Write a sequence for this structure.
């Protein structure tokens, strides 16, 4: 049967969280690097497609490929760990010290991955910082002139410049205009949007684990991720990419502004969204086992399979 029962799913998530708590720093960083990098590339894909077809929702439909690969390859994404590690701690298979250790190293690994891709794409989109980002209107005029001249290279470059400008705009919008300018209410709004974002992201990860087939896993995680992206909610790893690349491209937003008005409240919101609305809820209603021991050979086969799928090796 391709379906995993909810109580079996929760037992597997607990075992996975316990094993994740013991992963070495090296592997946390490497797996975290992959997750941050692939999400950065997914953001570029979504923006490029959305601008090309003038329909952002189409880009949102393609964006989840990055999350799907993280689930399938067992990599480390800090937002998913916000749900899994507390579940293991509540079950006595981890500790809060190990939980915070995992969160800190994976958060850092995710940021390194996003930063590397941000530098690469900033250089690529601006032809080595030799062309300026363009607004949609300016790019449209340049593209029209290039089309008349039959210069496909300029046409494509115009699209790259639009993507660069879009990232600058998002950096300014999602740090300064939406949050800093509103003061305390802006900080609270960033937190709330972080809650919703990771509620949906962890739902996607959990839904993927309900299926044992690759197509089932991909389809199950695709829909909640598309929802959070379309709704414009705040996900810390996506924001690590956008708000690292924006200043590189010349947005003028400072690191202090980024950290205080976006990364801090969004991280806190993501913790609540994952830990409370997925981890605590599922643990409270579907938890069936009561043993208070670290994972051993007595864990059943299903728990080990689910743990392996989550990258808890």
């Amino acid at each position: 049967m391709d379906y995993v029962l909810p109580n079996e799913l929760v037992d597997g998530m607990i075992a996975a969280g316990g094993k994740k708590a013991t992963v070495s720093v090296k592997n946390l960083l490497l797996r975290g690097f992959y997750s941050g990098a692939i999400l950065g590339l997914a953001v570029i894909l979504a923006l490029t497609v959305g601008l090309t077809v003038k329909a952002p929702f189409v880009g949102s439909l393609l964006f989840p490929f990055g999350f799907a690969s993280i689930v399938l390859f067992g990599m480390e994404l800090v937002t998913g760990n916000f749900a899994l590690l507390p579940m293991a701690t509540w079950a006595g298979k981890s500790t809060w010290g190990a939980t915070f250790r995992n969160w800190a190293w994976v958060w850092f690994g995710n940021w390194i991955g996003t930063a590397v891709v941000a530098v690469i794409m900033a250089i690529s989109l601006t032809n080595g910082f030799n062309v300026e980002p363009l607004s949609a209107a300016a790019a449209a005029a340049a593209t029209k002139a290039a089309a008349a001249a039959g210069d496909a290279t300029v046409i494509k470059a115009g699209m790259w410049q639009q993507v660069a400008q879009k990232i600058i705009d998002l950096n300014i919008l999602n740090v300064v205009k939406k949050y800093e300018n509103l003061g305390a209410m802006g900080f609270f709004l960033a937190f709330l949007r972080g809650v919703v974002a990771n509620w949906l992201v962890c739902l996607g990860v959990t839904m993927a684990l309900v299926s044992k087939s690759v197509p089932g896993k991909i389809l199950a995680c695709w829909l909640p991720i598309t929802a959070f992206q379309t709704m414009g909610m705040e996900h810390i790893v996506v924001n690590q990419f956008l708000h690292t690349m924006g200043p590189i491209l010349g947005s003028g937003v400072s690191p202090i502004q980024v950290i205080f008005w976006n990364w801090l409240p969004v991280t806190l919101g993501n913790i609540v969204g994952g830990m409370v609305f997925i981890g605590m809820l599922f643990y409270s209603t579907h938890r069936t086992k009561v043993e208070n021991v670290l994972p051993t050979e007595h864990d059943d086969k299903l728990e080990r399979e689910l743990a392996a799928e989550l990258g808890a090796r």
Notes: Residues 291-296 have pLDDT under 50 and may be disordered. The two ends are 25 Å apart (CA to CA). The longest helix spans residues 255-286.
